[in-house]
């Protein structure tokens, strides 16, 4: 039986939702981890940093080792690893085992996202390729909007282990969906690692990686401290902070799907505009926190700007890396996590060195505008023909 493109993308979204919840839900559970596993709260931060670094490093390595495998069985194997890792997390007797479970989850993160995005592009006509990538990314943004607050609530009111059992259940549902729905697309030719690694010589891809690492990483320099900024500058209580974080997630979902409607040939121009707006929001963020209404507006715009740029950058890397169809999506997912890690580390370093929250958001906004400058350079030197793809659709 042949399933529709919409059904296939929906199954991919369930998987990326579960992975997104695994990645981000721990931010609201650090206190519970510390109390239950008898470690310092500062130590539990390793659950975030180790995850991001593992995605950035282990993801591409695993994809390189599995480059000759067909997409469907590889997706199924990766989701099986995901389920096992979350069962390990749910039953972890100590912090070290919990950290190991994070390492396992992180290893499959980038290859899974990469495969889903690459397959989404393969089954879509040219004018819907950006929206297909946004759909895959949409699972992650919905996890930020709904999954993370839900996980924090369950962890706080009941038991943090239930969060990982819930994520494992979502993984199982996705595994069944992948088995039934995912098309078993036969590769026209077995990918050759030597050919795929030619991506390292692609100036278009390297410019985009530079934009993400040196520009987009500014997002997490500020995002890491959103909760304390809302608490200390806006004077928000727990309920108001929850609303603010929900609005960030709502903005993320809307920004993601609006960007998904952009045609490939317009990606660069729209990305420059989106990043300029995001940089402006970050520069004005602490000033907006003086008023409750504008605080909520700032949270929404922060989320919309952050995840309005993500699918555009993903799409540009995947479309530009014509020599590496199997590896491009994984590279994109890994680079974003590298940027997340760099941004969070820089933000923590600035705060440790007594920078104010306003100064931190100025640094973050400045980094975004540096990314805008890099995009102008990219626009001048990139091969425009890469974003005018020939017809190829899955019916």
Automatic annotation (TrEMBL):
CDD domains: MFS_NepI_like (cd17324). Signal peptide: none annotated. It is found in: Cell membrane. Pfam families: MFS_1. The keyword Cell membrane applies. It is a multi-pass membrane protein. The keyword Membrane applies. The chain crosses the membrane at residues 7-27, 39-62, 74-93, 99-121, 133-156, 162-185, 205-226, 238-259, 271-289, 295-314, 326-351, 357-378. Residues 8-383 form the Major facilitator superfamily (MFS) profile domain. It comes from the Bacteria. InterPro entries: MFS, MFS_dom, MFS_Efflux_Transporters, MFS_trans_sf, Tet-R_TetA/multi-R_MdtG-like. Keywords: Cell membrane, Membrane, Transmembrane, Transmembrane helix, Transport. This is MFS transporter.
